[in-house]
UniProtKB/TrEMBL annotation:
<dbReference type="GO" id="GO:0009254">
    <property type="term" value="P:peptidoglycan turnover"/>
</dbReference>
<feature type="transmembrane region" description="Helical">
    <location>
        <begin position="28"/>
        <end position="51"/>
    </location>
</feature>
<keyword id="KW-1133">Transmembrane helix</keyword>
<feature type="domain" description="N-acetylmuramoyl-L-alanine amidase">
    <location>
        <begin position="87"/>
        <end position="223"/>
    </location>
</feature>
<dbReference type="GO" id="GO:0071555">
    <property type="term" value="P:cell wall organization"/>
</dbReference>
<dbReference type="GO" id="GO:0009253">
    <property type="term" value="P:peptidoglycan catabolic process"/>
</dbReference>
<dbReference type="InterPro" id="IPR002502">
    <property type="entry name" value="Amidase_domain"/>
</dbReference>
<dbReference type="InterPro" id="IPR051206">
    <property type="entry name" value="NAMLAA_amidase_2"/>
</dbReference>
<protein>
    <recommendedName>
        <fullName>N-acetylmuramoyl-L-alanine amidase</fullName>
        <ecNumber>3.5.1.28</ecNumber>
    </recommendedName>
</protein>
<keyword id="KW-0812">Transmembrane</keyword>
<dbReference type="Pfam" id="PF01510">
    <property type="entry name" value="Amidase_2"/>
</dbReference>
<keyword id="KW-0961">Cell wall biogenesis/degradation</keyword>
<dbReference type="GO" id="GO:0008745">
    <property type="term" value="F:N-acetylmuramoyl-L-alanine amidase activity"/>
</dbReference>
<dbReference type="InterPro" id="IPR036505">
    <property type="entry name" value="Amidase/PGRP_sf"/>
</dbReference>
<keyword id="KW-0472">Membrane</keyword>
<keyword id="KW-0378">Hydrolase</keyword>
């Protein structure tokens, strides 16, 4: 083998070595990327699982609170029942209560009594069919319009299995003032205990038909979520064990 051939052979060998080194580097990089992706997927699964577990635990705690405690105190009610009529008090039996529906009056500045009288006046005007079991006023007063064992004309296809609560508002935002909100908490938690319901059984008119009612709770989902939290907090702080109640 002459000198020229030796040089060519040496160069070919050096090329093969460089090529093998490049291939190994590419393989290492590729393997590293694959391993990194796998680790990222595993970490994501762990994090998502932990978050779901935390949420499930929170829901479990809520369920435990509302299943073992209840608010036994009936708020002060101004019972002003509507005159029986086909337009606002048909006197149809409400055989089972599966939920509570929150509404707003959509007429700023009016009182609970004025809204009650409007429902009652439908017997004469015959404009529409509308009513509610309760109306909460701007000063926190609660007017009862319909007995809880009768249906109201408030929640469309859920009239047959829900209690309805109308809330008065001060302005076009539809936000409940503090007095109205506090009475809503007290009335709702009392009804929850009376019918063995949880906060999940408290819904908006919007959840039944898509109507923006109660407006503020529809446009501010965080306020609606806070309302549910406030229900559970009120029961936790003021509730009594159901076992004690059954023994008394």
């Amino acid at each position: 083998m002459d000198e020229y051939e030796k040089i060519r052979q040496r160069k070919r060998e050096e090329y093969r070595k460089r090529h093998r080194a490049q291939v190994r580097r590419k393989q290492l990089i590729s393997n590293g990327i694959v391993i990194g992706v796998i680790i990222l997927i595993i970490a994501t699964i762990i994090i998502v699982g932990a978050l779901r577990g935390k949420k499930a635990k929170q829901e479990e705690v809520k369920a435990e609170v509302t299943s073992t405690l209840y608010n036994p105190i009936q708020p002060k009610l101004d019972v002003q029942l509507l005159t029986p009529n086909p337009y606002s008090r048909p006197q149809k039996a409400l055989e089972k209560v599966n939920g509570i529906v929150v509404h707003y009056t959509a007429n700023p500045g009016t009182s609970a009594r004025q809204n009650r009288d409007y429902f009652n006046g439908l017997a004469e005007t015959k404009k529409t069919k509308a009513s509610s079991h309760f109306v909460i006023g701007l000063e926190g007063e609660i007017v009862q319009c319909i007995p809880c064992n009768e249906i109201s004309y408030a929640s469309n296809n859920r009239n047959s299995d829900t209690i309805s609560i109308e809330c008065c508002i001060e302005d076009e935002t539809g936000k409940f003032n503090d007095s109205t909100y506090q009475s809503l908490i007290e009335l709702t938690t009392w009804l929850m205990g009376r019918y063995d319901l949880s906060a999940d059984d408290v819904i908006r008119h919007y959840d039944v038909t898509g109507k923006k009612c109660p407006l503020y709770f529809v446009e501010h989902e965080d306020a609606w979520e806070q309302f549910h939290k406030d229900l559970d907090t009120y029961i936790e702080e003021n509730g009594v064990p159901k076992e004690e109640a059954s023994q008394n």
